[in-house]
Amino acid sequence: MKFKKIGNKWIVRIDKGEEIVQTLKQFCKENKIKLGTISGIGATDRVTIGLFNAKHKQYHSKELIGDYEIISLSGNISTMNEEIYLHLHISLSDSKYNAYGGHLNSAVISGTGEIVIEEIGGKIEREFNEEVGLNLLFQEKNKTN
């Protein structure tokens, strides 16, 4: 991984063989980024995406192996229990130009990953919401305007 900071933005290159989610989580931790947005593009050959079933409050995951272009990687950075929390979604295309997408669980870079992190000053904590079944921003007891 290589990176450079320009203003409040970090330009990050994730290298072949590095896993996106863990690399970005560690990067945010080391650079004390507790709130921000993430966007990126690149290539992967092993990715696990998920879809949340709201009725049953469960994630269903699917692993894709092969050559995939990362059409779009987007998400946000917050904290949960004082730890860095990444919420990422990904869109992919295969060699036949079929598109796939969902919540990003993991992806290993096969060529390069080009990521932009926009750091936002401050911190927003997440909490698990029993009714929805997800870790949500702005729980009532933590709500700020």
UniProtKB/TrEMBL annotation:
Keywords, sorted A to Z: DNA-binding
InterPro entries: DNA_bp_PD1, PPC_dom
Domain PPC intervals: 4-140
Pfam families per record: PCC (PF03479)
Single GO MF descriptor: DNA binding
Protein name: DNA-binding protein
Species of origin: Candidatus Infernicultor aquiphilus
Lineage: Bacteria, Pseudomonadati, Atribacterota, Candidatus Phoenicimicrobiia, Candidatus Pheonicimicrobiales
